[in-house]
Design goal:
378 residues, alpha/beta, Aspartate Aminotransferase, domain 1, 2 domains, seven-stranded mixed β-sheet, four-stranded mixed β-sheet, 12 helices, globular
Length: 378
């Protein structure tokens, strides 16, 4: 096959799916707690999103950025409401939203040279985003091209902020870095230090936002008060989209200082609007959190010496393993009809869709317990 060798294929051929389940070429149904790295946040073939897509497909799909379009403008208004006097830029991915934020902070803090990010962070693989990403495995081949960024631990971050700091980039939950939830006192301290020194707090909500953690933004849950928010993944239920949202008081890009051919196209904007409406239906996110607590309880009931820690928030969980690696556990899970993700070498990560039901959570927890029994120590 003529694929670039950047991802390890796991062998599952997908022929269909709906809700929280995928249909394999083998005719089996698989519970999908990977969801396209969290992007299929409403699962697969959600009726409301399908209807929005079908309706939008009969209008112009893309019109560029110079023409106005009501669905894009409505989406921008919704996004702007997330922050005080908010402005928003629409693009096509999480990495692009980070790139836009990185450019924006250099424009509005031109005399400051210091940019902070956290150890274990992941912000993307394009060159600007890669500068913020911590993992040397991703960084080393392109080190000579990266923007200078200082990486510190969560606990060190507040003390590292000073009058020369332009911006601090953080994740409320470090997903790729092992599903580490930021303690609320740490988030509050980072926020306070940014306020004291006038540093811009950029919160990467690409994986945690859009209802994943039980709220539109996870930032308030961990004590963060962002100046800029980066969103993507679940915004349009799995279609390519990203957004950078910032407080209007910060300023803006210079004219022609940034752009995107496909960003904010009417097709994807229409689906993102439908997605926003689902999240804001009365009781929807409350129901999600009730089921999330059931999943958490199911994971915590697994009594295995191979479980070192269960951590996460909302519908974003990592199970850190002891004495075994994640890869063989993930393969056994798939053999048992469950698709999940790694988060580093020893963490099994679950990103269930918001439509997952109790029987999905029970089956996944049971399958994990069985996989841990089956796996042999290294």
């Amino acid at each position: 096959m003529a694929y670039a060798a950047v991802y390890d294929a796991n062998g599952l051929m997908v022929n269909g799916g709906d809700g929280a389940e995928l249909l394999g070429e083998d005719g089996r149904r698989y519970i999908d707690f990977s969801c396209g790295h969290g992007a299929a946040i409403f699962g697969h073939a959600h009726l409301r999103l399908v209807e929005a897509l079908e309706e939008a497909s009969r209008r112009p799909w893309t019109i560029g950025s110079r023409l106005r379009e009501p669905h894009r403008e409505a989406l921008l208004e919704k996004l702007g409401s997330l922050l005080e006097g908010g402005k928003a830029f629409l693009c096509n991915s999480g990495a692009e939203s980070i790139e836009a934020a990185l450019k924006l902070v250099t424009v509005v803090r031109p005399d400051r040279k210091k940019i902070l990010a956290l150890r274990r962070s992941f912000h993307g693989r394009t060159l600007g985003a890669l500068s913020l990403t911590f993992n040397p495995r991703y960084r080393n081949p392109w080190q000579r091209l990266l923007v200078p960024v200082e990486h510190v631990s969560m606990e060190e971050a507040a003390g590292a902020i000073d009058e020369n700091t332009a911006a601090v980039f953080v994740e409320p939950v470090q997903g790729e870095g092992g599903v580490h939830v930021m303690p609320k006192d740490v988030g509050s301290a980072i926020t306070s230090a940014c306020r004291e020194y006038g540093a811009i707090l950029v919160v990467d909500e690409i994986q945690t936002g859009w209802g994943r953690c039980g709220e539109i933004l996870a930032s308030p849950l961990v004590g963060l008060e962002p100046d800029i928010v980066c969103l993507a993944k679940g915004m349009a239920g799995g279609l390519p989209i990203g957004a950078t949202v910032w407080k209007g008081s910060l300023g803006d890009f210079p004219t022609m200082g940034h752009g995107s051919t496909y960003g904010g196209n009417p097709l994807v904007s229409s689906v993102a609007l439908a997605s926003w409406e689902i999240l804001h239906e009365e009781g929807f996110l409350e129901g999600v959190m009730e089921r999330a607590e059931r999943f958490r309880a199911s994971l915590l009931r697994i009594k295995s010496p191979r479980v070192k820690e269960v951590r996460g928030i909302g519908l974003m969980y990592g199970v850190e393993l002891s004495s075994i690696k994640a890869t063989p556990v993930l393969q056994i899970l798939q053999d048992e009809g469950v698709v999940a993700l790694p988060a580093g070498p020893t963490v099994v990560r679950f990103l269930p869709p918001l439509v997952a039901q109790d029987h999905h959570f029970d089956r996944v927890a049971s399958a994990l317990a069985e996989a841990l029994e089956e796996c042999t120590d290294e």
